[in-house]
Each structure stands twice: as structure tokens, then as C-alpha cells.
Sequence to fold (912 residues):
Amino acid sequence: MIGETILHYKILEKLGEGGMGEVYKAQDTKLDRFVALKFLPSQLTASEDDKVRFIQEAKAASAMNHPNVCTIYSIEEYEKQLFIAMEYVEGKTLKDKKDSLSEKQILEIGIQVAEGLSAAHEKGIVHRDIKPENIMIRKDGIAQIMDFGLAKLYSDKNASRLTKVGTTMGTLGYMSPEQVQGLDVDHRTDIFSIGVVLYEMFAGESPFKGMHETAIMYEIVNVEAPPLSTVKREIDPELDRIILECLEKDKDERCQSAKELAKDLRKIKKSTSDRKSRVYNVNSQTLQAHPQSQASSKSSGSIAIEIFNKKFELGKIFSSTLLAWSIAGLFLLSFLYFAVFNKQKSQVPITATVSINGPDNFNIIGESSIISHDGKSVFFAGIDSTGNSTLMLRPINSNTARKFKKINMQDVYNSGGLYPFWSYDDKFLFYFYQNKLKKLNVASGTEIDVCDALLGRGGTINKNGDIVFAPQATGGLYLVSANGGTPRKIVKTDSANSEESLRFPYFLPDGEHFLYTIEAKYSGSTQGDVIMVGSIDSETSDTLMQVSSNAEYANGYLFFVRQSTLMCQAFDPDYLKLSGDIYTISGNINFQDNYLYASYSVSESGNLIFQGRNKNNIDIFLTDDKGNKKGKLFSANILNQSKFSPDGGKIVFDAAGPDNKSEIIWIYDINRKISSRVTINSNLNQSPIWSNDGNGIAYASNVGKQFNIFLKRLNGTGNDSLVYQAPVNSLCGPSDWSGDGRYIIFSQVQPNSSTRFDIGIIDLKNGTSRFIANTNFDERNGIFSDNMKWIMYGNDESGNSQVYVQPFGTNGVRSQLTANGGLPIRWINNDQAIIYQWQNKVYKMKVHASGQNLIPDKPEELFNITDKNILIVYDVTKDGKTFLCSAPSGTTILPPLTYIQYWQGLINDNAK
Fold:
């Protein structure tokens, strides 16, 4: 079309395209000016609804004359193709300029966009697709709203409703809750969208960060946006309030007019006061930290003894349980003696890791465990093989545990947990049981009730005997004396900020300030959850960081859990300020998402305990193409990925290491029925794939603060070679290896990236890499066709994940194969069909090549994984007849507690 003359417009260049049209720069030969022409997409047949909506856009926008709205000149038709002639704006979109804007410039742009929307709303026009791509910044700094292709004349009662009930129109991530749910919209929908834009401009990230489209839609409807102050230091609290008001889920609670929004933003811009809230945070870019093994022996003196693994082995040799326990105690005492002696000799503290268990066949309940302040004792509850539940105290330097009393574990489950805490001098234990806060005298074993606590959610006590606790699953925090009395509420929930529950307080050293967690929604972790600092002498609280976890403090560090990883960061309890890097202590921490509680405890002596995740045994098996099981292969908790070898005779997979701090690559030989360990390092080794000849694998492994991709030969020769080094704090992993052995396809996501998950190609011959799919949407799980002509991958641009395909090595156009959702699994039958899954169903779809296009047939449903009691489908053989699947075996094993002496050594190792 470039170079053609249509009517009196000479087409000069293509400017872009979107869901409702292609835009070209043209010269108006009549009036001698540049214009922008917008056509319906050439590859679509313009239906009547398309034409009506297109004409509506022109009418809506041409009714406005405002400096912040792109001017419409006319609507034309040429050879049955409609187009709009509009003002040509020379500049860049807000998306292209956002990284180079100052806060003052962002405010000015927000004001101008709000004023443009106000003009549109006064004429009854709702844009419904406000996003950075639709905001143009001219060279003179004026912001103009583009593309009213989704506008709705909501004041025209005679206008036909073009959007069907239940249909969403807009761009995922910027849509309002009512758009996501397919409900009626009005001008307040645009206010929500501009709120998202402003949040993204100031914070550098979206307020709704689901890993896939369904999660994002859920967050938009259900999860409150975290305050800007949790991701950006020193944000003006009034600006924070204004933007959060734009993001209210309920339209009636939202800012009610764009005109008022412009007025409020103008006040912020004009303000000359230097107001700063005392808010300290960790930017969510740091969320991608990953655990490293802490149990390996090092020349620095670190030592790791899995003492109770020794106990179990000895117990097999010596039939006497007492003898086995005694020998285990000797191991532990010898270890502690060695640690103390070595410390006295070298004056360098020893970092050591020991497993702690109860008597034989006794499962410790991690969330009911706590270490004393002096680090000498561990209190816990657990269940023996007969189902009896007991409270116990175990001195670290002893091989026996003291029993206090039997409890009804069902009462514990019904209330949510014991959540014990020690008195300041370690003489008393407090815990929640049978709707009471209990006080246990450790020396005598006697117990009294302190006060009522229906569903206790943690407590803490200072040296004056003041207890701050959460007596309910929802609501605020209360203060009561350790000797009993009537509790007094000291911290209230703020319904305006969607605070439903305050929980797990923890006193700081001054005995006045305390940490606590806000659970924004009483349904588990959300992005609105934060760790706060409160005071028994003040009604105000300060935000520390956005995280869904209980928090503790010891020796200058704040401890918390993210994604089942125990972390810490330097924290000044005098100035209530976080600083420096985040350090990883251990991964695979047992975490109760519905309570925001992780099973760990830190002492002031420099020791800590934690419990790993419950080990649910997972059976790996094969099925036919109808989902019928062919027999169990082995049991393993596969963490990320499992693939058939090229000949279908072996399986490669990743699973947690025995210490729950590492991830190991394994290979299972189907014919020989044996497993072989592939990786021997203590890193997180993930997402393995086979080489084209089956003689090697590629995998991702964490090194420092990011994951890199390595190759490993399976003949035992040579070291693992680094083939791709990812950016710092990023996550990446390979998904397929080309048939000629030259290319590896991988997915990558990194913090503060607008493109989310992207797909890249590693050229092993040239040692280079490039991205082939890196839009603003998620692209992942790229798979080469056997003939290497195509790459199939998942993309969520449509609102759900769909299977896309694009030519490899050529400039062909991508095409969408599925219509109702899909996650790709594999090409089969010499590239004549694909296997994919959507929700709980597995499909087969035949495909036919036609030039640079791939034409899909109607999909065929193979089987329903729920009906077949299948948990996950990992892979399928090249003939499409045998599937690799998993299902839970139903057996649960509670791991022992892990005790770490001198955890500071782990920080020193990480900092090197």
C-alpha cells in the first residue's frame, strides 16, 4: 500500500497496527498536510459489527475538539474499505518514553490525559482502552489520547450494544474489573485504566502481576493493588492515595470524574512541600531471589551433619530404639563439642546444619515449632504413629525430648495453629489452644489461661510482660498483660486500605515497636499483603515491605519468606529502616499460604530452625492416548519439567534434593528401571531438555542472583559448559533443542520488564542469542517442529493462553492455532499434528502447511486428566501414543526440623 494514492491521500509509511486497525502516514494532497489514515486490518473481513464500531469511533472522536485528544478530520471509504483521516502526531508513545520521564513529567502527562478524558466523558464517550500505547507524547510535550476504536457512546440510549454480554474489550492489564467480568462500563472504567498507567509510570511495574492471563484477570477483580509506597521510596502519600482511589474495585468507591482527577494531580504537581512518609521498602524487583544449598562442607570451617539420617540407618542395625537414639545423641554431642572447641581455637564461628526430630515415628508440626531466645531449646508439637499428639521440648544438646501434655490435634487444625512464642527470659511459653491464649511454665509444667483468643494468629511479649497478639483470624492487634486481664485493641484494621487481618506480631529489641503482617484478603497471599512496624505507644504504623509472610528480627536482620524461600535483609531497629541486599537462607520452607505463615524461628543467639515442605509422594507413570495408565515408573516430586529422550527410552526430570535446599537433574531408564543423578552441585538445577542425539542435556542453574543455561555431556567427559548468561535477577530455562543440534529455545523473565516472559534462541555454533517473541504479553514453552520449519509456543495476548506458531529462520508472520485456549506440549507424527492441553483436557490437532502459513484442523479431545486421576501431563512420544504423567500417591511425609548454628555465616558466604 505504501506509495499508492487513495482518493487524495498519498500513503507514505506504515505507523503501526492494533486490534481495530492499521495506521499509515499519508500526505493530504488537497490541503497539503500530513495525516494519519486508519484502516480496518487487511487480513480481516470487515463484518457489519466491525464497520459500525469503526464508524462509531470516528463519530465519537470527531465530536471532540481538545488539545489532548487526537483530532479526526473525516471518515472515508475506498473500494469498500473504510478508513479515518486523523491528525498526524509526530512524537513517541508513552510506552516508548516511560523509562526516560521524570516524576514531574509523569504528573504533567497524567494531568493532560485526565483533562482529555474529561472532555470525552462530558460528551458521553468512554475510551475503554487507555494504556501507554494509546497515549502519544508530541515533541512539544503535549500528550494526546489516541485510538477511540473501543469507545462506547454510553449516553446514546438508541445506540445498539456492540459488546455482547460477557465479552471483554480492552487490553489485559489495564482493564477495569467490570471490563474483565463483561459488565456494563461507564466513564469510571477509564479512571481505573489511567490509575493503572500512573501506577506503572511511578512504580516501574504493574499493580497486577499475575504470571499468566487468568491470574492477572483474577488479581484485577479480587486483589487490591499494593500501595506505591511498598515499591517506591519517598512517594508522596497523597499521590499514593489518589492513584489507589483510581484503582478501587467498586466503581462507586473510585475517583468519580476525570476532571476531579486532573485537579488532584495538579495540586500534587504544584505542591512545594517536601512531604516524606516514613516508609521503607524492598522493591518487588528483588522477588526473584533463589535458595542455594547451605549444607555443603567448605574449607572455611562450615560443616553439615544430617544427624538423624544417621539415626535411622543405625536403627536398622540395632533393634533397640533407645540404642539408636543414644548413638544419635552422641553424634550430636560430638558435633557440638567440635563446634565449640573449634570456635574457641580459631575464634571464627562455625556454621552448621543439623536435623532435629522427635522420637521414632513422630511427625513434627512445623508451624507449632519455635526456638528459644538463647538458642538452647526447641518447643514443638507433633503426632506419633498411633495418632496421639503431644507438646514437647527438646534441648539442642540432648538426645531426648521432654513431654508436656497431650493435645487434640483436630482442635489445633480447627483453630489454625498453636503459633507459640517464648517469654523474654525463656521461662514461659505462650501458645493458642482451645480458644485460649495459654501460658506454660517450662520448669514446673503448670499452665494457666491468659485470656480468650478464638482463633489466635500469633503473639509476642516484651521484657515488661506486655503481650501483643492477634486473638482472631480477622481484625486488629490487642495488648494484654502476661498475668492476664482484659485485652485492649492497639492496632485497628483499615478497611479503606483493604486490611482484613493483622497477625503474627514480633517485638523489636526496644520492647516498644513490633513487626506484624497485614493480610489484605482473608483468602491467602495477595499483593496487598505487607509487613508493618507498629508501636504499643502510638496508633500509627509504618510499612516495611510488600510480602506475604510472618516476619522476625535477630542480630540486625529482618527475616521473611517469599515463594517458600527463607530470606533476610539488614534492618536498623532504631531507625526502622531496611538496607542492602536480600540474602537467601534456605529454599523449600514449609509455608501455609492461607495463613501467611512460614515454619521458621530465629533466636538472638544466632541460631534458627525451620521445616521444609511436606513431601507429598508423586507417582510418575505412562498412559496411552486415552489417558489409560500403563503402569507406575517411579515416585518423585518433579518440580518443573520432565521430557522423553529422542528414542523414548529415557526420561529426564528435576526434583528436590534430599536436603530440600537444592534441585537435582535425574535420568530414569524405562527399560532398566533405574534412576541416575546427573547434576552434583548444590544449586537449583531446573528445566532439563535432551539434545537432539540424546547424548546430552541442557538445563538452567542459579549462579549468583540469576539463572543461566548450561550444557552437560552424558558420557562423563568435560565440565558443564555455560551457553547463556541471563541478566541479574532474571529467571530463564530451556524448553527445546533443535533437530540439527544447533539451536536451543528458552524462556526468560526479568524484574521490571514490560515484556514479561519472552522466547529466545541460543545459536550454539556462533555463541549468540536473540529473542524471537518479546511482546508485552507472556510467550513461553517454545518447541521446534521436527523439520525445524516452525516454532510453536504459548501466548496470552487474547486474554487466555493460546497456541501460536511462527516460521523459524524466515520472516514469516505468526499465526494462532487454537481458539479456546491452549498450552503446547509437542509436535507429533512428523509435524502433521500437535498435542496441547487446556485446563483439564488434552487435545490433538492436525495441521497442514500452506506456504508460510500453518492451517489447523478442528481439535480432537483425547482425554480429561481429572477423570483419569492425573495431576500433570509432562510430555508425549513422537508418535503421540504414549504420555508421561504424574499423580499423587496419597502418602505425606513431614520432614524433620532443620537447625542452623550461626546463620550469619550463610550471609557471609552469599556476600562473597
